[in-house]
Amino acid sequence: MDRKIILEDGTVYEGFGFGSSRERFVELVFNTSMVGYQEIISDRSYTDQAVVMTYPVIGNYGIAADDFESEAPMISGLVVREYCREPSNFRCMEDLEEVMKRYDIVGISGVDTRQITRHIRDIGSIKALITDAERDTKEALEALKETELPTDQVARASTKRPYRFGDTGPQKAKPVVVIDCGIKLNILRELDSRGIPTVVVPWDTDVTSILTYDPAGVFISNGPGNPEDCAPTIETIRNLKGKFPIFGICLGHQIISLAYGAKTYKLKFGHRGGNHPVKNLLTGKIEITSQNHSYAVVPESLQGTGLSVTHLNLLDDTIEGVECEKDMLFSVQYHPESAPGPCDSQYLFDKFTALLRRE
């Protein structure tokens, strides 16, 4: 064994390294998805986190060129029970370790991921250090205690300059302005597939700049970190609400709620996986959803904001969707674009499309 994970509470797990060999301070979380490790490592919502995969074998189908969710992954680490070094799939272009080395993602295998997951479930997401096996544990714990994880994840995960995505839709059609807080590419693909022209802008773009695009609507993306750290985005939405249709996903959902005066809080260990049951209160139907977030909206704080609850998580009753019909605005905490995950909730993109076209 040549690598180990040292948790802030003193727990140590030893295993074998793969991917980048550098030392990384991380927030340790877990994901229960059975497939989709490529989409997970390239989802920028995992910036500064190391993900424990509960499915025991990772890397078995390699990496496919079309399945990246960002151009440059920003996840810090991957923790697996067994890493497969000989992938087999007709779409495979390279193996997982090559990608992890290219983007400086540390990996550790051969650890008891079931035990780690249960530990995180009991104590909550925790700061950890992935390092060499010979690293002195006492010194590492001191370093962990002294190291604060950054709070600028969205600023790093967002695009640095505006760009247009796709080329569908009428050339003279007004675009949707997409506020990028760490967006997954499949969100843009879903909008593009419906003929919606989009212009993607940085997370801190102000109202005046957004209005220069004469938008048909605004979309706020997923992203990493604490939503309260996104003060410029919250202020932008506060000043845009009611002007045209607005749709938010994940961090975008939290930002919308904060812009209306609600509050958010950090979950004990978050929601990360592809099988979370959510009840649509508008239809009574149950959707199986893909999720990846650490924060949720405080239910009581929605009173008097003008937002109504549209979706609830059936595992813990957390709020999964809100709406303000008067302002043509809605948002969901989960990921209707999937990648990875079920496609039960893709109707939400159709709902946004209908609002844009006032159908």
List keywords for this structure.
359 residues; alpha/beta; Glucose Oxidase, domain 1; Rossmann fold; 2 domains; 7-stranded mixed beta barrel; 10 helices
Q: Which secondary structure elements does this structure contain, and how are they paired or packed?
A:
Elements: E1 3-7, E2 12-19, E3 24-31, H1 37-41, E4 49-53, E5 57-58, E6 77-79, E7 82-83, H2 96-102, E8 106-109, H3 113-123, E9 126-132, H4 137-146, H5 153-157, E10 163-165, E11 176-180, H6 185-193, E12 198-202, H7 207-211, E13 217-220, H8 231-240, E14 246-249, H9 251-259, E15 264-280, E16 286-297, E17 308-313, E18 319-324, E19 329-332, H10 347-356
Parallel strand pairs: 3-4, 4-6, 5-7, 6-8, 11-12, 11-13, 13-14, 14-19
Antiparallel strand pairs: 1-2, 1-9, 2-8, 3-9, 10-12, 15-16, 15-17, 17-18, 18-19
What does this structure look like?
This protein has 359 residues and is an alpha/beta fold. The protein has 2 domains: 3-149, Glucose Oxidase, domain 1 (3-Layer(bba) Sandwich), CATH 3.50.30; 154-356, 3-Layer(aba) Sandwich (Rossmann fold). The chain is built from 10 helices and 19 strands. The chain has helices at 37-41, 96-102, 113-123, 137-146, 153-157, 185-193, 207-211, 231-240, 251-259, 347-356, and strands at residues 3-7, 12-19, 24-31, 49-53, 57-58, 77-79, 82-83, 106-109, 126-132, 163-165, 176-180, 198-202, 217-220, 246-249, 264-280, 286-297, 308-313, 319-324, 329-332. The strands form 3 sheets. Strands 10-12-11-13-14-19-18-17-15-16 form a 10-stranded mixed beta sheet, with helices on both faces. Strands 1-2-8-6-4-3-9 form a 7-stranded mixed barrel. It starts with a strand and ends with a helix. The mean pLDDT is 96.
